Amino acid sequence: MSRRAEVAFVIQRYGREVTGGSESLARAVAARLQPDLDVTVFTTCARDYVSWRSELPAGEAVEDGVRVRRFPVLEERDLLAFNAFSDTLYDRPHTAADEEAWLRRQGPFVPALVDALERDQDRFRAVLFFTYLYYPTVAGLRAASARAILVPTAHDEPPLRLHLFRETFALPRAFAFLTPPEAALVAARFDVAGRPADVAGIGVEAPEAPDVEGFRRRRGLGAQPYLLYAGRIDAGKGCAEMLDFYRAYRAAAARPLPLLLIGALNMELRDAQGVLPLGYLPEEEKAAAIAGADVVLCPSPYESLSIVLLEAMAAGVPTLSSARSEVLLDHSRRSGGGLYYEGADEFAAVLERLQRDRDLHRALGQAGRRYVSENYRWPAVMARYRRLIDAVA
Predict the structure, then answer these.
(1) Same fold yes or no, 6-203+377-392 and 212-375
(2) Chain centroid, CA 231 distance in Å
(3) Which of the residues 138, 177, 293, 302 could staple to 155 if both were Cys, CB 3.0 to 4.6 A apart?
(4) Cα separation of 134 and 238, whole Å?
């Protein structure tokens, strides 16, 4: 047995090769708790969130000093069939059994993970569940809620209205939110009063010397300014609309900037003139790409935090976000480091303005850097997590 207190993390995917905001947050918090506490991560063998196909080896491993236990996913997901089934539930009459079937189809379906967590839960000072949406959290909370902390990463989306999540949000002993709008959304939707909660946020660190020139050289960009999107490239993240707006901007602008896409491509790119998909990039290369961008685009209408937006601000790069996201709107207004759009005309007008008005461009970058420095530093974030762990222990 370890001489140090133990905590458990439950997350649907985990590892250096896994991209995603919740997954990145879990890894970052685990790494920073590990020097003081023994962290065990309960996760799946999936690398891909679309199919949940088991690709990583099952069993126990140590990654960056953290014990990781992976369990195979029993059922792969057919995303098109799942989306069609979901449309029969959202805002339509249905039964509790329908919602349980939805949860299993949503996945990743890993009953062995839940069984292991239930057997071992008494070892842990706290069990942290990341992301409310998936089977490991919903079933895991049913099995091990006594010292549970939920990090919901919630945003206003159709699944949040399903009845089964009333139970999910009733079970944790404490909550860690990412932003004030997320905390307000959850409090308005569920009865969370009387339990410890904090806006823990996330820490953001801009690399001291990102290799921007090396990135430009490797990608054949020269000195040309560029726009950047980083994250999952799919319609649910607002990318289809972003690319439609980009095409309109490109057709009207005198000197349109190219658009670089970083991340897994999960949608068809049509009429993609000026668009350069780069796929997955290592963290150092991604940081250089962000630091070298003229503007970072954040088009998702559903966000609980947006790490990329904060990374851009930390690097002094202005952001342009969808006004449909309360979280992105809140970041942009509170920081003064980003602008936002509601339609194609505003999207194009803001980009054109930032090209012409470099004083405004520079002022936005400086304001964003200040905002991150004042609000998103790891020592303060980890102090909040440790207080919540003590509260449930």
Answers:
(1) yes
(2) 9
(3) 302
(4) 21
List pLDDT tens digits, range 80-127: 999 999 999 998 899 999 999 999 999 999 999 999 999 999 999 999
Nearest by Cα to 33 from 391, 386, 354, 392: 386
User: Where are the chain's structural domains?
Assistant: 6-203+377-392, 212-375
Looking at domain 6-203+377-392, its CATH architecture is 3-Layer(aba) Sandwich (3.40)
pTM of the entire structure?
0.80
Rounded Cα distance between 117 and 282, Å, is 32
**Among the four given CATH numbers 3.40.50.1370, 3.40.50.720, 1.10.8.60, 3.40.50.2000, the one describing domain 212-375:** 3.40.50.2000
Burial 3-34 (b: 16+ CB within 10 A, else e): eeebbbbbbbbbbeebbbbbbebbbbbbebbb
pLDDT tens digits along 33-76: 999 999 999 999 999 889 999 999 999 999 989 999 999 999 99
